[in-house]
Structure prediction request, 217 residues.
Amino acid sequence: MSDDPETARQIEELAADDRPLLVLDVDDVVLEFVRPFPHFLKTRGFGLTLSSFRLTGNIAETATGRLIEQPEVTALLGDFFDTQADWQSITEGAADALAMLGQGAEIVLLTAMPHKHRGVRRAHLDALGLNYPLLTTEMAKGPAIAKLRGLKGRPVAFVDDQPSNLVSARNSVADAHLFHLMADNSLRPFLPPTPEDIVSVEDWREAAPKIAAALGL
Prediction:
């Protein structure tokens, strides 16, 4: 899997850091997504039915019942991210957990979203007091995590709500400590069982001590 050159450029801007590394997904890990998104859709004349763990095939035009296709889903997501400050709040317990973990670890936020939305998300995170570096990627997350770690072999933990991203991290960083956290645990039944080497956590209260132990903090 190739690197995203823009992500690589963003990583090169970061100050060198040899503390243990904690990489965090943003949507449904640090910021609420699944809960506010249906309210956003309603304002645009759409409804969300969660019958599987994907958006395409689950969003319908309210007036007609027509299920919308991928291009329309992508456009709606773009609108949502442009106005995210109106909709997305911090997931419960995340701010305290990060403040604690950030005393001994380098924390970097790694979000899979079009690079053009990075500025809006950066401003929103800053307004919420989450001043951690933010990287956007339009490709797999694993190569970005490997690049972030650097050559020193420092301990790495990665938290994401999408199992595919955790598997990508495992493929690029064999010894990474992987944590599966979902802001809305009601979606777990839609997912296949998590691979054994990935730790499922219910919330930040459970995650924080496990991450601290994994990173030796």
The chain has a mean pLDDT of 95. The radius of gyration is 17 Å. The beta strands are 21-24, 46-48, 59-61, 106-112, 134-137, 156-160, 177-181, 198-201. DSSP finds eight helices and eight strands in the chain.
